[in-house]
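Hi there, hope your week has been kind to you so far. Thanks so much in advance, here it is:
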Amino acid sequence: MYQPNLLYPMGTMFPGYVDSALIPLLVRQLKKKGLEVDVIIDRNNALMYLVVNNVLTCNLVAVFYDLLNAPPISHRDILNNWADRIFDQIRMEAAELSIPDVLRRRIRTELVPTYTVQHPDFSYARPFPGGLSMILSIVHAAGTTRCTTEGLRIRPLSVDELFYYGQLNTDAITITITQKSGPTTCLSGPSPFIAAKAANMPAVIKQHAIEAPHGLFALIPQQHLLFVAPATPDDLSGQLQTLVDFARFAIIDAQRNNPLHAVSRDIFYFSPEGACETVTCSNDPAVQELLSNPQISPANYHFSAQKYLSLPPAFEQRFSRADHASPAQQNAQ
């Protein structure tokens, strides 16, 4: 059966009429109302939608069907009505977010690569180990919006309070899939804030009843994924080698299939005292094949894996105490 392309509705409208005439008219009407509008075209799914004030995402399918069912002479009035409806939604959204309790419920923390937020819009961002930053986002019925420095100035709560409630809300996000692979546990869900749970690892350990008296390792390859593995001092070298092999496939998958939501290519260690540091060096040129080629040769794999692991002195010292050999000592045995 013939499926019409939603970008070019049929009927009284010729192909191109929507995106060359009607949608620009709608955008102009919204801009006259003082709104910022971006037109997004998803050709893979034959969809077009608007992002208004970085707050509201408006799928234009309903607009198209209204236009299809009306004569061309009424198209301008239809678009004017849609502009009024969108403006009212934005106004209601702004009013809701001026209420402190509403904002407390809807704020989230988000973990992102620092290079993606290195401009004044995110000067409030807080540093996280491994070249990452913590920012704030607000959830909406239509999606999420990242908070900017300018946007935070009009909020009724301080940045410190927003980070506090944002992390509480992120900690409370439901994990829909818990999958174990040996000592490693994969925590995942549809939310883009799963990775940010790593900012409060004690809460993760408590919620999932993880026994980690010696601390634990974590991987944060994508926004919706968090891998954790309790450290095993008796065979730390073997565990690290296993984690390298495990991590690289998760990293390759993120880069190939979900690059816009990739977070980190490193392995993190969280100590029992709450400190966090990386135990890898993902920026080393010698490890790029390891983190991009699933068919890397055994010789190159061994060389790159050794370069990838970059254990901090404090980490080595921790595991050389209490009758445990350090990873370097275990390798020498």
User: Anything to note?
Assistant: The radius of gyration is 25 Å. The chain has a mean pLDDT of 86. The CA atoms of residues 47 and 106 lie 28 Å apart.
